[in-house]
Amino acid sequence: MREPDLPAMILPKLFGFAESNLHFHDEAVVSELSNISSEVRAAITWSIACEPGDELAGYLRDALGVSQALELIRSQNLKRVLGVLYESGNLDSGQSRFGDLERVVSASFERYLPRISTTAVSSALAALQANRGWVVLPQDEDWPSGLDDLGWATPPLIWGLGDRSQLPNLSRSVSIVGSRGATTYGEWATVELVGELVANGYAIVSGGAYGIDGIAHKATIQVRGSTFAVMAGGVNRFYPAGNELLLSKVREHGAVLAELPPGAMPTKWRFLQRNRLVAALSRVTVVVEAGKRSGSISTANHALAIGRPVGAVPGPITTTASFGTNRLIADGFATLVTNASEVCLLAGDSNELQLETQWQDLGDLEKRALDAIGKKPMEAEDIAIAAGLSTSEASIALSNLLLLGQVKQANGRWCRVSTKES
């Protein structure tokens, strides 16, 4: 059956796209679309066709393959779909999860088909190209493997803006989330945690929102760490708008990620589903502050659902901003954490306490110099400027750090010794 060729004016209403982000009949994009593999094209189409967290779509992709599942949905032949599921040996698992598969699959035709369009795929690719973005699929080497723990709720692909080469850093990362209305205490706790975690080689994941999320990203950038922001809408729709400059900087120090196609708008449902990605991308989720109905509680719940540890920073009982974190701890859903070393232990690193002791044993000059060194090698002069030290002070500090095994030198530049090397 020929797929629908929907008018441009209808697409924004169907997908929740912003009309300004759509580019139709772009010859360069059409050419690009013809050059990509059928698997990539099918994955892009799936990301447009279904809402985040759609387990039926994930079941069909897992049972039939990305391309064949899409082809069968397009055919609208219910008997054929069920027949292929039976032949593949996946019918029973689907019935166990969804019940009446005939009814559920039939309803999926109505949900998915209006969104399946070459025009929509071309539009998404055009927006991605305009923003110099990329996509990563489950079969790619740099696919964040933590997402696979989501089972059938695993997205068909991830859209990204920023430095794709930093995606492997997600294998050693911590998600830090919390209230949008952060208190001074929450800001302080976040900055302290981030600084020590980055110093111990961790990347930081969050949702790019106001409050604790934004502070976590900002603190990571300030210490030259790697950070990732997960959007609830399209990857090129920075939300909230007030954090656009910050999210642009996140692109330079990591990446902005999304499972929805470029241009898709965030909604309440999409925010809740976005939280499962924040939880799955990292080893552990830490809630710094959370009110009674904070969305960060849902992130903690998603982490617990896939067997990931959750940490929570205790707060004063005099503020509602700590109600959620204190309740998580009291109910046994989260481990009380007061410093980065305890977070590292939750993440499975047993040697982090020793590293923290080494940090405490450093002198002031050494601490300032080590604090100034980012993930990339730096010249001694740049370290001195960043640390607010004189050239001679920086030289002394670096020499001592070298003797202590905290830094190494190569081609005249200095960098930290990673946790694995120490």
How can the largest sheet be summarized? 9 strands, mixed
Please indicate the percent range of residues in DSSP E strands (runs of 2 or more): 5-15%
How confident overall, as mean pLDDT?
85
Strand order within the widest beta sheet: 1-2-6-5-4-3-7-8-9
What's the shape? globular
Which spans have pLDDT < 50 for at least 5 consecutive residues? 1-31
Which bin fits the share of residues in helices? 40-55%
Q: Can you count the helices?
A: 20
**Terminal Cα span:** 60 Å
SS content category: alpha/beta
Number of strands: 12
Radius of gyration: 23 Å
Description:
- The chain is α/β, with parallel strands linked by helices.
- It is built from 20 helices and twelve strands.
- α6 packs across α8.
- The protein is globular, with a radius of gyration of 23 Å.
- The N terminus is likely disordered.
